[in-house]
Amino acid sequence: MSLFSRFFYRRPPNGLLEFVERVYVFDSCFSTEVLSDGMYEVYLREIITELHEEFSESSFLALNFREGEKKSQFAQVLCEYDVTVIDYPRQYEGCPLLPLALIQHFLRVTESWLSFGNHHNIILIHCERGGWPLLAFLLASFLVFRKLQSGEQRTLEIIHREAPKGFLRLLSPLNPFPSQLRYLQYVARRNISPEWPPTERAISLDCLILRAIPSFDDCNGCRPLVRIFGRNLHGKAGLSTTMLFSMSKKKHLRQYRQAECDVIKIDIQCLVQGDVVLECLHLDLDAEREIMMFRIMFNTAFIRSNILMLNCEDIDILWGSKDRFPKGFRAEVIVIEFN
Q1: 330: which DSSP letter?
Q2: Residue ranges of the C2 tensin-type domain (predicted)?
Q3: What residues are annotated to the active site?
Q4: Does domain 202-337 have CATH number 1.10.10.10?
């Protein structure tokens, strides 16, 4: 048996894949086909009916990754069959990840559910259309968290390969692997650290330094525009997010060329805490459009030495755009302790 076939293999009832013992994934998560609302409801009802017949002594927990806040059709149908449903968002500020607090919730809920019920409890995992990139990350997190698989990068690659060829590129304009791997390494630290997750400290993002100039225009240069998203520290809702910082387009944004300089320093000075998304875009003035150069997501609890150093392998970039970054490119996020 190959390493990969240890995890995904078909078992009854139809419409589900058994990921590990008593954890099933809906096969629609791997499909590019879009069912009509009527066919989708039939699909769900047939699966749940067969589940109840096959596992009459079991209790079911369904974890769903959805878009928006409205109660999903998935939840409405499964609740009719006495299935407990927990809805999660399917992205965080455009990244196919969850904030660390929700990742921790997902992992502890699954662990708790499987340990109760005389080992009869069953977990069902489902994502709505477009949710596969996040689902792949969480399945990898599940394996690492429960020590069913070692090696974060290898585990993430194994899960992503289960989807149809080109599926990830179809659903995500940027390659999310670097940020997902960063968060999977956060999860792995739980197995070696007595305090997990560590305290999310408040810090000030002082500046972003780019060493070597990316080529995103005809002059072998770029006109960088930085935006930062994260928790609204002044809001009443603990997990509400907002854009915390954005360079103004009204001001003249400098164009940097490889022939003229090799370092870019962008002052930010933005207070952040917890999960942060930093976007660095190229502003094309002629076409008045923005082109994403790279994106990173990180958690402030895991920044050490007040600097986050990233090479080209550590940033989320557009598919096929790696050649735009010169050899030796490095991005440095400089932070200052906030008291």
Answers
A1: E
A2: 200-338
A3: 127
A4: no
